[in-house]
Automatic annotation (TrEMBL):
Entry annotated with the keyword Transferase: yes
Pfam families tied to this protein: Aminotran_1_2
Catalytic activity, EC: 2.6.1.-
Single GO biological process annotation from the record: amino acid metabolic process
Domain Aminotransferase class I/classII large: 36-387
SUPFAM superfamilies: PLP-dependent transferases
Keyword tags: Aminotransferase, Pyridoxal phosphate, Transferase
Phylogenetic classification of the source organism: Bacteria, Bacillati, Bacillota, Bacilli, Lactobacillales
Organism listed in the record: Leuconostoc suionicum
CDD domains: AAT_like (cd00609)
Gene designation per UniProt: patA_1
Cofactor: pyridoxal 5'-phosphate
PANTHER family, per database record: AMINOTRANSFERASE (PTHR46383:SF4), ASPARTATE AMINOTRANSFERASE (PTHR46383)
GO molecular function: pyridoxal phosphate binding; transaminase activity
Name this polypeptide is given: Aminotransferase
Length: 400
């Protein structure tokens, strides 16, 4: 292994000293090589990409579509994304000036934060939340401000938001995840309107992460951009809705003046997205078949959700029934180890079942575990059998 003196002389960005590795991926990597391990850790759809979408990527390759596009992405893709957002959520974006194609939702978020953050700027993050939000904020010189919403059924209330705004300065934006990772909770139109009324009185930007918007089970998805478009930037894409995580195509949509500046950063970061991936995403956004594909996947996820809610409730776990995404955030029963990290590792050791400790998702997550049900029913049945055996073993020991 090569050793370099440079790592000792401050060559790195000081902001990296504030950053922690992803608790989701760190835990997943630690347990992945354990024999017979069954992992319900990563938010990775288990479905194959529909054939007509794969065919679009293959057609682009066969046509030698191998040259630079523009940084915002091909016009055909941006038009398809604009039509998709309009058809599904009633949003009206000019594809030429108000939509950017990103290398997944993650690059979109990074580029957006890099474009808006100055030193000491703050990003409000309702928690439990996807850990990447806080770490990307720190990398870009900002400060995450956590808002624990666990006592409000995992929904940010307008009163709570007003309280934070009154006590914090230099607030640049708030990230609203809808549907939520890790809880699966979704916001109603009324809840979003109440939050919009608070933000409208400020110069705070709303970053609305809607990557799971097509996986809303119990009611149609409502976008924050349909309520406060002038202060909202939407993050969306095809990764979760079309099982295309490896294609790495996301989108940012927002007011033209904001998107122009964001695209400056975006272009320096990635130059252009991949042409075959953009061709596949164009098909995903515009095809009537794709709508049917997503509806079918959503129905399968809903069956899995209902199965897990029933089984885990019987085992003594408490959870807000997920109304979107494909995660369950379950409170560990009081008669079991309340340290979620210890609980998760013990479950791995004794039953070779991996779920993610909830404390990694920030304030309000301790004592919970996140379970991804982007897995087959057969796998979930095996997982629940192992969890049941674990609970029985631990409760028997306590009785003895």
């Amino acid at each position: 292994m090569i050793k370099s003196k440079l790592e000792q002389v401050g060559i790195f960005n000081d902001n990296l000293n504030k950053v922690k590795p992803s608790p989701i991926h760190s835990f997943d990597e630690k347990v992945s090589d354990i024999p017979n391990i069954l992992k319900l850790t990563i938010g990775e759809p288990d479905f194959s990409v529909p054939q007509h979408i794969k065919d679009a990527a293959l057609a682009a390759i066969s046509a030698d579509d191998s040259h630079y596009s523009v940084s915002a992405g091909k016009k055909t893709l941006r038009q398809a994304a604009s039509d998709f957002l309009n058809d599904r959520y009633g949003l009206d974006y000019d594809p030429a000036e108000e939509i950017i194609t990103t290398v997944g939702a993650t690059e979109g978020l990074y580029t957006l934060l890099a474009a808006i953050l100055n030193p000491d700027d703050k990003i409000l993050i309702p928690t439990p939340a996807y850990p990447v939000y806080a770490e990307m904020t720190r990398i870009n010189g900002g400060h995450p401000v956590f808002i624990d919403v666990s006592e409000d059924k995992f929904v940010l209330t307008p009163d709570h938001l007003r309280e934070i705004i009154a006590t914090e300065d230099h607030i640049k934006a708030i990230i609203i995840t809808n549907p939520s990772n890790p809880t699966g909770v979704t916001y109603t139109a009324e809840q979003l309107k109440d939050l919009a009324d608070v933000v409208r009185e400020t110069n705070i930007l709303i970053i609305s992460d809607e990557i799971y918007s097509e996986l809303s089970y119990d009611a149609p998805h409502v976008s924050m951009a349909s309520i406060l478009p002038e202060q909202t930037i939407v993050i969306n894409g095809v990764s979760k809705s079309h099982a295309m995580t490896g294609y790495r195509i996301g989108i940012l949509a927002g007011p033209a003046a904001l998107m122009k500046k964001i695209n400056m950063v975006h272009g320096f970061v990635i130059m252009t997205p991949s042409n075959p991936a953009m061709a596949a995403a164009t098909e995903a956004f515009k095809s009537a078949e794709s709508k049917d594909d997503t509806l079918w996947m959503k129905e399968q996820y809903k069956k899995r959700r209902d199965y897990l809610v029933e089984k885990m409730t019987k085992l003594g776990f408490e959870m807000a029934t997920p109304s979107g995404a494909f995660y369950m955030f379950a409170k560990i029963p009081v008669d079991l180890n309340q340290n979620d990290v210890e609980f998760a590792y013990d479950l791995v050791d004794r039953q070779q079942l991996a779920v993610v400790p909830g404390s990694g998702f920030g304030p309000g997550g301790a004592g919970y575990v996140r379970i991804s049900y982007a897995a087959s029913l057969d796998m979930l049945e095996t997982a629940m059998n192992r969890l049941e055996s674990y609970c029985e073993e631990k409760r028997t020991v306590k009785i003895l």
